[in-house]
Amino acid sequence: MLYSSYARSRTAIAFLFLAVIAAETRFCFSSKVYVVYMGSKTGEDPDVILKQHHQMLTSVHRGSVEEAQASHVYSYRHGFRGFAAKLTDEQASQISDMPGVVSVFPNSKRILHTTHSWDFMGLPDDNSMKIFGHSTRNQADVIVGIIDTGIWPESPSFEDTDMPPVPSKWKGHCQKGEAFNASSCNRKVIGARYYASGFEAEEGLENKLSYKSPRDSSGHGSHTASTAVGRHVANISYTGLGAGEARGGAPMARIAVYKTCWDSGCYDADLLAAFDDAIHDRVHILSLSIGPEAPQGDYFSDAISVGSFHAASHGVLVVSSAGNNGNPGSATNLAPWMITVGASSTDRDFISDVRLGNGVNIKGESLSILEMKANTRILPASEASAGYFTPYQSSYCVDSSLNATKAKGNVLVCRHEESSTESKVAKSKVVKQAGGVGMILIDELDLNVAVPFVIPSAIITKKTGEMILSYVNSTRKPTSRIFRAKTVFGTQPAPLVATFSSKGPNSLTPEILKPDITAPGLNILAAWSPAKGNIMYNILSGTSMSCPHVTGIAALVKTLHPSWSPSAIKSAIMTTATTLDKQQKPIRADPGQRKANAFDYGSGFVNPAKVLDPGLIYDIKTEDYIEFLCSLNYDDKSLRLVTGDNSTCHGHRKFKTASDLNYPSITVPKLKDNFSVSRTVTNVGEARSTYTAEVSSPAGVKVTVVPNQLNFTRVGQIIKFTLNFKVVAPSKGYSFGFLSWKNRRTQVTSPLVVQVAPANLGMFW
Ligand SMILES: *[C@@H]1O[C@H](CO)[C@@H](O)[C@H](O)[C@H]1NC(C)=O
Ligand SMILES: *[C@@H]1O[C@H](CO)[C@@H](O)[C@H](O)[C@H]1NC(C)=O
Ligand SMILES: *[C@@H]1O[C@H](CO)[C@@H](O)[C@H](O)[C@H]1NC(C)=O
Ligand SMILES: *[C@@H]1O[C@H](CO)[C@@H](O)[C@H](O)[C@H]1NC(C)=O
Ligand SMILES: *[C@@H]1O[C@H](CO)[C@@H](O)[C@H](O)[C@H]1NC(C)=O
Ligand SMILES: *[C@@H]1O[C@H](CO)[C@@H](O)[C@H](O)[C@H]1NC(C)=O
Ligand SMILES: *[C@@H]1O[C@H](CO)[C@@H](O)[C@H](O)[C@H]1NC(C)=O
Predict the structure, then answer these.
(1) Are strands 517-520 and 524-527 parallel, antiparallel or unpaired?
(2) For residue 391, how far is its CA from the centre of ligand 3 (angstroms)?
(3) How many CA atoms lie within 13 A of 415 on its CB side?
(4) What is the pTM of this model?
(5) Secondary structure (DSSP) of 630-653
(6) 707: preceding bond cis by omega (within 30 degrees)
(7) Does the CB atom of residue 646 touch ligand 5 within 6 A?
(8) Cα-atom radius of gyration of the chain, to the nearest Å?
(9) What does the pLDDT look like over 641-676, one tens digit per residue?
């Protein structure tokens, strides 16, 4: 009570100020959360650090200890030093000038990478995640951190039956809270923490937090955790669909939960605190199905880029999702120190049959197990518009746009577009409310995402939609009947890159290909939170779902090769990926099943059969990432925003361009005449082995490799080679090829991506 009346009076004062002062200074008086970075990690006493942060805050609050304490949100102490606090722009700028402060940046909000968060979507993990002849005994030593919406610990996917004791190196914690106590953690979920301070500081304290604890109220975090490392659970399904066994990629690996995301999103201050703790807790891999909206800001202003830099420099691999925007250049999580995952289909689908009055049968996507008993009149929703709604508006079946007199008892044909504020499920509710008995939904983007509708419904492509509308137009009493959804296997071609999966080129650093890799992300069945929809398993789609598939694979690699660096594990995943589908044809992409390229799938579709034995790896050290940032012409201030220490670009001018980073894919934008790039590969296969280069040059370019044979005599040996790119013919835009190091057993493949600069560019200089 006291708090809210205090808050109200503060608001009133702020409004008075607003009325008096000019517009351009308006924002000076509103405080928001800033993250303050302070130098590299040292062995200082945590109490001393906290005291120092409070002193700094006190000085910008004109000596008020109370205000300073009230403004303090977090102190970071493990991976890096610094704190988060509520500050005005003025105070933030004062702090940035204080000694020891590296940088200050605002607390931005990030989003979960699920398409249409409240549509239930998805397809299950096909059985491709076997561990090829290798022991899984040490899997229980691998700890996977999930930064997400928390966990439903009672899910059968998180049972600890037959799991050995918690690893002795584990330094984490099981944080108590609402409906979550010490016994909520077990030998499977060995740690759980939650972070709400950044969220509350921005969005207020009233009724916004569902489960103020690591418990998952949304389902997203349980879904991603169980996809990565969930236990085997027999006989599960989503309302009978996709029935079978659920399991993660590495079912014996441990889970550490970092709940940073709440109903409306995840704030930077909370994300950074989670990274900080995860590094301290000794997780091996971090999975983040979260990202900024496209286009992503620069690395130094993006908490996930900064946090993952620290994770990587402490030996923690960060796996992240590319985003669900789908457009060219929309990929996010662009930093080269994480592995960024795009989404594809599998060969399983959820289909509803639709029979038209003229006998034509159509297949649509659906998760609805409701069906119609007989053929019924079918009507375009545009012909059932209500009140002030135009037929065009009603054709999208938006809320209140349908006239119940006209809609009643009919099947309605509605449209859906990406920018729609109404979800597909909501449209089925609108039709139901208007008395409709079924819905055929034309998806203008052809997403192929299945949805659990409230009436018999099916999603069809734009082309099929035109066919149905012309049938409706051609006869006096058009009818249709929609059958219940069923699970269909063997859909071809598969995998197909999903329409929504965010694409390259990298909008920030075109020299680094993103996404890095592709994994199943369409219609994935995994554990859920019964707090949402009262179900234990659910089907979802998104790069949020493909990311944890790669996390699970990374856990398998870590099991077998515990000493490998994050970049070595990443290299193994990328260089063993395939660009062929299950029929050994080049992978295609939706919509329209066009031929896909590296901007769709990165290095390709993840290949668990090969990933444990990659032969050679492209390794990268933290020093190289500093060279990389310096090659982007970062000044020391920007550099330090990322590194969190007192690094400088002085003496870090080894790279001509960012293409020189020892990345497992090779991209040369704006190629003029010719250009050379060097790489090193480390032998992790047989001691004595010879690899020969096979090159497919991108259109318009001739690529040569020197030497074109690599003779290794021992494990761990590093050999350098140089690729020369020479323009031989004009070409437009980007073109694609590959370099493959081959021996009898192994192929180590990197995509080559080249953009030839327009020939006459020089004339305009
Ligand atoms: C908390 O602990 C008690 C036993 O100590 C247990 O009965 C209870 O179910 C636990 N779990 C939750 C979520 O409160
Ligand atoms: C699977 O579960 C359903 C109900 O949930 C049950 O009817 C069926 O017998 C179970 N099948 C197996 C093989 O356990
Ligand atoms: C709905 O349609 C009926 C019949 O065409 C019409 O009489 C009525 O005014 C319409 N109502 C609205 C809200 O548009
Ligand atoms: C339906 O037919 C009419 C006239 O035959 C035509 O003008 C209209 O464009 C048609 N609409 C559709 C959706 O095919
Ligand atoms: C950077 O920090 C380290 C220790 O943290 C210190 O030894 C070194 O002198 C510092 N370098 C500069 C340029 O400030
Ligand atoms: C690349 O270009 C430079 C100068 O433009 C030239 O000296 C060199 O021989 C060229 N290399 C190749 C492989 O064409
Ligand atoms: C590798 O060994 C082969 C013979 O096995 C030899 O012909 C070739 O020159 C060697 N390549 C390099 C780069 O040393």
Answers:
(1) unpaired
(2) 13
(3) 20
(4) 0.84
(5) HHTT--HHHHHHHH-S---STT--
(6) yes
(7) yes
(8) 27
(9) 899 888 999 888 899 999 999 999 999 999 999 999
